[in-house]
Amino acid sequence: MKSFDTFINFRGEDVRNNLIGHLFDALHNYxxxxxxxxxxxxxxxxxxxxxxxxxxxxxxTAIVVLSKxxxxxxxxxxxxxxxxxxxxxxxNRVLPVFYHVDPSDVRRQSGCFRERFDEYDQIxxxxxxxxxxxWRTTLTKVGNLAGVVVTGESPQVHGLNKxxxxxxxxxxxxxxxxxxxxxxxxxxxxxxxDINSLLDFESKEVRFIGIVGMGGIGKSTLAQxxxxxxxxxxxxxxxxxxxxxxxxxxxxxRLLLSKLVYLRRNDGIKISEESEGANMIKNCLSRxxxxxxxxxxxxxEQLENLAGSFDWFGSKSRIIITTRNKDVFSHRNHQQVQIYxxxxxxxxxxxSLFWKHAFGESGGPNEEQFIQFSKEIVEKVExxxxxxxxxxxxxxxxxxxxxxxxxxxxxLVENKRLxxxxxxxxxQLERKSQQAFLDLxxxxxxxxxxxxxxxxxxxxxxxxxxxxxxMCNRFLIEMDNEGIIYIHNLIQAMGQxxxxxxxxxxxxxxxxxxxxxxxxQHGVKYIKGVVxxxxxxxxxxxxxxSLFKEMTSLKLLEIDNVxxxxxxxxxxxxxxxxxxxxYPSNSLPQNFEAPRLFELLLPRARTSHLWNGVxxxxxxxxxxASDSHNLVETPNLSQVPNLERLVLCDCTRLRTIDxxxxxxxxxxxxxxxxxxxxxTFTLMGRLRSRTVIELDGSGLEGRPILEGEAVI
Length: 712
Fold this sequence. Notes:
By secondary structure, the chain is α/β, with parallel strands linked by helices. It has five domains: about 5-170, Toll/interleukin-1 receptor homology (TIR) domain (Rossmann fold, 3-Layer(aba) Sandwich), CATH 3.40.50.10140; about 180-340, P-loop containing nucleotide triphosphate hydrolases (Rossmann fold, 3-Layer(aba) Sandwich), CATH 3.40.50.300; about 345-410, Helicase, Ruva Protein, domain 3 (Orthogonal Bundle), CATH 1.10.8; about 420-500, Winged helix-like DNA-binding domain superfamily/Winged helix DNA-binding domain (Arc Repressor Mutant, subunit A), CATH 1.10.10.10; about 610-710. It contains 24 helices and 24 strands.
């Protein structure tokens, strides 16, 4: 509990005998009995004493009276710095009173503030110079806050009424973020500073701010802190915080109007349909300065019916929208919405947040194992605040063995609340987009955008780029400047958990799952993709070749370190990509036909012939059989018209290039590096002129280059 209702900061000689005395009495008459009235004459030395700092921290609100000689007092300025620090971290609410001064002079340290700050600027001591710069920054901040302006022309009683009304409104308005929770939040001051520049309360225009980011990243908490900080400055009945997610639009319209317009009416708001409610909001609020927070907007239709345009609201209004879907701003009326993307926490802030929830304020143990496990958990969670809070709290008071077990399960999103919050973004996708996301989460993290688009297109997605853009806008994936797709660890884990919960598995990526499913041979006909992680040495997987005959839906196969009990006789005709490092059979199955296969990657294969006879692979673009030491000749390629890359480097026994290679009009690369047994290639000169032929270290190196060849 806070000790004081309000702390009053003022320059004594300017206002002690007029405004402050009357203000003190007025606040008492309002029922505020715990008021800290600073006595400047009691202050001695160059620093605020601990009692004064504690009094500021223990005050629910602060009144800063900025008068003509305010800047003469270093004490006032030091107090102000401390007051604004408590406001920046969300634990205090500040009301500036501009007493016979212009707010712009406060912001710019001009007018009556200029002379004193010109003197301060002459100080040479580095520490004191830093303090002066801090004063300037703080005055600029307080000058940008909405406050009460008291001029010589207006009756002082009017100013007193405004001050007491606003302070009382601050105090009676419950804080959305409990002060006890605030001390656990990290990085809030930095985020508030970024948001303040977008809110720009000095501007008279209407501003829409979109707070966007993935689920659980802290959008709602940030919006709540902003609301707690600024709602009272908009006056009585001019602000509201509304949760949109999970409610129908008419209900939210009714709530909004009841809070901002019809608060004192008892007959309720009657809205029969969304368009009627939208018109009522526009007609009732177009001349009213309001602060509205719409938390959890999922679809653009919600925004169009709650805050359809900037002209729905009066001058200086601020509309804040939190969403995990940037598409809600795609309407032409919302082109000017200013976006604030809530990024994951950095490592330092992440560790601090996790540690606070795991060990409270006790400081935590010194055991190296706890510290090391904490570091590993923080790294895996990748700056996700909700995950750090939930996992930290679940480990509070647990012994080291529980920590060890939790570390193994963190990436699987075992925490039910965390999983459900992350899954909301998935649930809001249409069925086909959900399937595309599961493909990405299970198979394509870290892959290039162009490669993924090619694969998705081969899977039958008619608009793969649109699907990727949709998932970017929903914060399910990211694409960097190099076109690499990145999926946050927790989002990826959420998608993989959804797939593992399916009664009929379609995607396999854990080698342990492959062992279990292939051993049972149950439901393998539904599997459309197997991509086993090759980054670490994994135990060898022994399979019966007959298993592949049951996998009739298989479109994507990417495996290695697999042993077959005999030669492979069947592969799915649905295959689009076959990537089998160390392919163990002598050749591809005799009856293998895959009309939509676009890449065949068999590096380090044990095969002597890729295939026998003629095979029709009309969409095949890439063949990579590099480092296949048993390969002796290339196959007949006459029915592979779209082949672009043929990679055969390090095939040390390769002796013959089939004559059909001259029919490949799209071939751009023929890689024969270090094919030491290849001594003749009589048709090289008949290849298309733009084909790059790489011969370094091969048996053909040094031979004369014929006209039309491009040889490296």
